[in-house]
Amino acid sequence: MENVAGLLASAKQKQTHTPLILRLNNHSDKAIFKALIKEGKVSFVHDEMYGQLQEFVKSKNPAIKIKKEDYPALVEAHLAGTDINEYGVWVYYPWNQELVHLLDEEEFIEVRTNRNRYKITKEEQDLLKTKKIGIVGLSVGQSIALTIAMERTCGELRLADFDTAELSNLNRIRTGVRNLGINKTIIAAREIAEIDPYLNIKIFNDGLHAGNMDDFFTGDGKLDLFVEVCDGLDVKIESRFKARELGIPVVMDTNDRGMLDVERFDLEPQRAILHGLADGLDPHNIKDLTNEEKIPYILRMIGADTISTRLKASMLEVEQSINTWPQLASSVTLGGALTTDICRRILLDQYHESGRYYIDLEDLVKDAEKKIDEEVHTANPYLPIEQSAIKRVADEYFTNAKAADYKISESDLNTIVDAAIAAPSAGNNQPWKWFFSKNILFLFHDKYRSWSWGDYYEMGSHMSLGAALENVHLQSAALNLKDDIELFPLENEPGLIAAIRFSAAGTLADAATINTARHLYTRHTNRKLGKRQKLNADFYLQLQQLVGKFDNVNFYFTEDENELAELAEIIAECDKVRLLNKLGHEEFYHELRWNRDEAEKTKDGVEVASVDITQSEIAGFKVAGDWKAIELLAGWDKGDAFKKMSLKAVKSASAIIVFTIPEFTHAQLINAGRAVQNAWIFANQQGVSVHPMLSPAFFFNRLIHGHGEELGNNVADKLSLLRKRFLKIFPLISGNNGDQREVFLMKVAIGGDLGIKSLRKDKIDLFCADNL
Questions:
Q1: How far apart are CA 439 and CA 483, in angstroms?
Q2: pLDDT attached to residue 372
Q3: Which backbone phi and psi does 703 adopt, to 5 degrees?
């Protein structure tokens, strides 16, 4: 009787998961049975023993078609004089105070598994009864545990999870609201006990960890199979090393695209953990890794490239519009079925392989593919500019122009061209080709390299070409040469940007120009974050004077914290517009280089390492490389994760500087590029870092000058509102300088770690000459 009191007390504490099995032919069990009823501890009694006996009789005589009127005699014969009320067992479930009359273990199992035949034979079922399976992680694991229990794939289950049920779990965990706040292991164990009270269930309410791992894997006999479906990377690694040490096979389901992992450590004792995807991790060094440092391993393990499109899109909304990644009951239930099937076949020696498998229902069961005339976006209409074409245009130039009188030395020419190709360009696309003929240096626009949807009116490329021309000018001055730059010398050949003639300078260039030239190669884009600090007011005065030397280029800045916060939102929203556009997205990833090896191969683009970005943010950008996932975000009007980098960058800005021109022409854009290059070099000389933030200028000019071309109404409306906010900070309309067009934005801040410097293509790819 003390056991009954203890059992009930435990139930009140919401911890018990073990039913009380009472056999009334046992005196003490009968006394407990009576006490439970007498003391009002039973709220519901269910007695369907006669029906169970009918099923048992039928299972023993499958070849005979038993009539309804024949059952009473057959049941009575089977009872052999035993009172039906005392036959079998009475099972008491203390957590709900229910008392259920059931067949005893052997007969119960016979009837309950009868419909398994012959997908599972009687001999196979008896073998499975001797097996022990451990499961860690009771979200997906609950479905697996219940399916294993229903099929009776083992005789003992060990369940480990430290978590309790929350309301948001009920989209995939089979339980009722009455179980909120109860440990997931308890809930699963109770569900199983109500299906089959004879299954042996051991629970580990504090999860799986170093302190209980031996007991979990080997206590009361070694596990025959281990199912790992938990979230923690530490446990994933540590438990697999333990399973491999003990020669226990491991099965894992991810409930996305039906992905299933099987690792046969029982047959392959030296097999690499997680198919080698966890190389470099072991139970010792994983404890030293931060959550950020774990992310690259997690990405490899889950196969970030192969997860479903909706999961990719959802992952990008984690901590934006949702708390964590989603799981669906249908996927979790499928995982229960897949894992149970694999476990059974492993335990019955019917399956022997290791590997990763997909049972993707969306791919297997889908509409027939229809040929759809999709909207065709404009592809790059240009081919790489050929040397023959360059020479043809140069020859055309010389039909109306003479060769230059001054013959520049080969050494000086190479020094000047080296300086020119060190200039910055949008996405580091290096849109120039240089050609030297008859003592004239020609600059051509290689539109194949610069063409992009984001570069409206080729504004970015022309400013880059202007920056390159300014480098020519500065380097020439340092060599005591004068450069005479003729812009767009052939009206019918807009790809010929400039023809440059050199001559000996009559006087030395001023000290400021010489000093700027010395810092050509120290100019650097700094995308690293820092702490916001105000710059000396004299910095802006000097910058203003410098920019003022360039006709039609104006300069505005703000260091006001409220205005910077507003600009951060504006810039971030414009960056988001780019990434949610198919071509903008494609171009962003085209210019991105994930590592130095990639950058070395192309010697262009922007390296991820040059940006102050966390491993989780890198992971997000890799997942976001799938346009189909981003297309979903665009359709849902989500994607705020794409704003994070811009928001963080502006948060550390000392100021945002805007360069403007009064007329939106290629000539003025080139001049703006020259002014920006001078300002950039000057800022770096002063220890001030520069980070171009160009999306507002590019999109606002597409909106205003291009009348919203290829933007879509919703995007155009959004950008129109953003520009109104922008103009409240920078009064560019009917101001002191008349109407202005913003063409370049840069963040300036106190310089710190410069990060990785972008590579440049080899000179041989960018420069050629025909008369050296």
A1: 12
A2: 53
A3: -70, -50
Query: Strand, helix or coil at 501?
Result: strand
Give the count of beta carbons closer than 10 Å to the beta carbon of residue 341: 15
CA distance 158 to 168: 25
Query: Whole-model pTM?
Result: 0.83
Q: What's the gap between Cα 699 and its chain centre? A: 26
Q: Determine which helix (DSSP H) or strand (DSSP E) holds 215, and give its type and residue range.
A: helix 213-218
From CA 697, how far away is CA 673, in angstroms rounded?
A: 13
CB 186 within 8 A of CB 94: no
For 557, other C-beta atoms within 10 Å of its C-beta total 19
Q: Across-strand partners of 748?
A: 655, 690
- Residue 517: phi and psi, rounded to 5, are -60, -35
- Nearest by Cα to 227 from 126, 132, 329, 308: 132
DSSP H helical ranges for 548-595: 561-579, 582-591
Strand locations in 4-123, DSSP E?
Answer: 20-22, 44-47, 89-93, 98-102
Supply the pLDDT for residue 292: 77
The answer to whether residues 131 and 155 touch, using CB atoms and an 8 Å cutoff, is yes
Q: How much is the pLDDT for 332?
A: 92
pLDDT at 324: 79
Which of these, 647, 667, 681, lies nearest to 512 by C-alpha position? Answer: 681
- Alpha carbon separation from 325 to 256, 335, 371, 400 (Å, rounded): 11, 17, 33, 67
Alpha carbons 468 and 452: distance in angstroms, whole number = 20
Tokens of 516: 């700027």
Query: Cα torsion at 645, 649, 651, 654 (round to 10°)?
Result: -170
Q: Read off the pLDDT of residues 573-588 as tens digits, 9 standing for 90 and up.
A: 999 999 999 999 999 9
How far apart are the C-alpha atoms of 434 and 170, rounded to whole Å?
66
3-state SS, 362-417, equals HHHCCCCCCCCCCCCCCCCCCCCCCHHHHHHHHHHHCCCCCCCCCCCCHHHHHHHH
Instruction: Round to whole Å and give the CA distance between 475 and 408.
Output: 13
CA neighbor of 385 nearest in space, from 435, 419, 437, 459? 435
Supply the pLDDT for residue 371.
63
498 closest CA partner among 471, 469, 473: 469
pLDDT of residue 12: 47
Query: Residue 108 CB: number of other CB atoms within 10 A?
Result: 19
Residue 320 CA from chain centroid, whole number: 13
10 Å CB burial of residue 311 (0-12, 13-18, 19+) is buried
Angle among Cα 361, 363, 367 to the nearest 5 degrees reads 105
**Cα(413)–Cα(433) distance, integer angstroms:** 15
Contact 444, 420 (CB under 8 A): no
DSSP state of 149: H
What is the residue-wise DSSP string for 637-681? T--GGGGHHHHHHHHT-SEEEEEEESS--HHHHHHHHHHHHHHHH
Among 103, 188, 96, residue whose Cα is nearest residue 139: 188
Assess contact for 640 and 672: CB atoms under 8 A.
Answer: no
- pLDDT score, position 209: 95
Candidates 72, 80, 21, 81; CA nearest to 51 is 72
Instruction: Give the phi and the psi of residue 200 in degrees, each rounded to 5.
Output: -85, 120
Q: Tokens at residue 179, please?
A: 């179980």
- Count the neighbouring beta carbons within 10 Å of the beta carbon of residue 38: 9
The low-confidence residues of the chain, meaning pLDDT below 50, are 1, 11-12, 374, 376
Task: Collect all residues with Cβ–Cβ distance below 8 Å to 556 and sequence separation of at least 6.
Answer: 657, 658, 660, 730, 732
